[in-house]
Amino acid sequence: MPTHYFMNLIVCLKQILDPEIPVRDFKVDPVAKEAVRGSANLVTNIFCENALETALQFKEKNGAGKITALCFAPDSGEDPLRKALAMKADEAVLVLNDGPAPPDPLMVASTLAAAIQKLGSFDVVLVGRESGDWGVGQTGGLLAEALGVPYIGFVDHIEANGTGVKLRRQTDSGYEIVEAQTPIVISITNDEHNLPRVPKTRDVMMSFRQPLTKWSLSDLGISTSDSYYEVVELAIPIKESTCEFVTGDTLDDRVSQLAEKILAVKRAL
Q: Which residues contact 169 (CB under 8 A, 6 or more apart)?
């Protein structure tokens, strides 16, 4: 196997509130301006898991490479990293978020960039196309800018191509095939071929025996004082509806009355 197929892949993971939470359990903290993380589960963002699966398939196909899972989160961020190790990532790094929550995409990108630079050289950085909570979708591009490397979005498949990579990206009109040199940042979208695998029970148990690196923001020289946007208000939409029953002695009377009410509504519009 040619040595240039040995690539350092870094997969950025985000932990979010489970999108499948029942509506009755979803609450918003009006002071913190974020969803309440109470009884609901915290899970790895699905697009981040698609990114990890894409990296794992790339490594398995080429027979060489190293995958580092990276997460910027509170202490609970250890969970998605342990799962990544169980799925056969080689290393895991947690940057502890002791700043404001939720951090804005620029803060996230700056922190991830500093962590990646601290890790050393890299070939490909993979991020999810967007998160399942805020859905901003800006981190990939901002991260590439911070690292000073190209960025390609909405990729669903990567393969080795000489000293670089060949990427397939989704567009509104089909697929594009892009050839690029490394280092590069790409955002991964979902596809039937990159559905995340389910780790074996033994691998899950073994993942808790593997070392996990933890860095603070001060270790990276990151300040939390700068933010380029502010969440002014966050609330659950309230939809009000009313129901009025039509009356009448016969079916024809009720149908006639219903038709009159529909026409009245149309005239009002």
A: 152, 153, 154, 155, 156, 175, 176, 178
What region does 240 belong to: left with phi over 0, alpha with psi -120 to 50, or beta?
beta
Ranking 21-30, 130-139, 163-172 by mean pLDDT, the lowest is 21-30
Specify the amino acid at residue 86: A
Q: What's the CA gap between 145 and 94, in Å, rounded?
A: 22
Nearest Cα neighbor of 124 from 63, 205, 66 is 66
- Distance from C-alpha of 100 to C-alpha of 115, rounded to nearest angstrom: 18
Q: Does the pLDDT at position 4 exceed 60?
A: no
The tokens for 190 are 């979902």
Residue at 242: amino acid letter = T
Q: What is the pLDDT of residues 55-99, one digit of tens each?
A: 999 999 988 789 999 999 999 999 999 999 999 999 999 999 977
CA angle 52, 216, 33 (to 5 degrees): 80
Q: How far is CA 88 from CA 52, 53, 243, in A?
A: 10, 10, 55
Give the tens place of pLDDT for each residue, 195-215.
999 999 999 999 999 999 999
| Torsion sign, CA atoms 249, 251, 252, 257 | positive
CA distance 73 to 109: 13
Cβ pair 122, 55 in contact under 8 A = no
Inter-residue contact 214 to 107 (CB < 8 Å): no
Question: Rounded CA gap, 165 and 124, in Å?
Answer: 9
SS3 145: helix
